[in-house]
Amino acid sequence: MELRIAGTVNDSIVDGDGLRFTVFTQGCPHHCKGCHNPQTHDFNGGEITDTSLLLEKIKGNPLLDGVTFSGGEPFCQAEQLAELGRQIKKIGLNIVTYTGYTFEQLYAERDKNGWGDLLSVTDILIDGQFVEELKDWEVKFRGSSNQRYIDCQKSLEKGTVVLAEI
User: Fold this and answer.
1) 95-98-103 Cα angle (round to 5)
2) Which pLDDT score is estimated for 133?
3) How far apart are CA 19 and CA 101, in angstroms?
């Protein structure tokens, strides 16, 4: 399945807990002021890759704790990432997904655009747009204090946000 990406990082320690393979998706509708990855905003930028190639790279690193979907906006390619996520779960890795949407927005629209499918494979959801005025170096794995570190599976079960411990 084809996926438009800005790039990958093979061994990140800043995109979630543990050693992670990070996929930076290409394309973002949010355009947050002060965005850390503004080069990912253009929906026509980056490169097209196949999710099977990404999976092989992930399988090739036995030290990984998990995979992170970042952006750009991962939920703009939710179906492709959900399929990749199902394969990642089969090899026993966890998934962190960053999004500029809130959990509440995604949950309300979960039957559209593959959003529910991507939520279903996400262990930790880091939600909310980056707000430059709330930039905070003390909030682990997040850029601004409004962003939440969410236990996605418990939140789906309860239908409301359940924060995860970091």
Assistant:
1) 100
2) 96
3) 25
Tell me what the mean pLDDT of segment 68-78 comes to: 97
Q: Which residue has the tokens 């970091």?
A: 166
Cα 49 → chain centroid: 17
Record the pTM. Answer: 0.97
Give the start-end residues of each E strand in the chain: 2-12, 20-25, 47-50, 66-70, 94-98, 124-127, 148-151
Q: Residue 162, exposed/middle/buried by CB under 10 A (0-12, 13-18, 19+)? A: middle
The CB density around residue 132, as the number of other CB atoms within 10 Å, is 12
126: which strand partners? Answer: 98, 149
Collect all residues with Cβ–Cβ distance below 8 Å to 15 and sequence separation of at least 6: 9, 22, 68, 70, 96, 98, 141
Of the candidate ranges 64-73, 81-90, 115-124, 136-145, the one whose mean pLDDT is the lowest: 136-145
Q: Round to whole Å and give the CA distance between 73 and 92.
A: 24
Residue type, 124: I
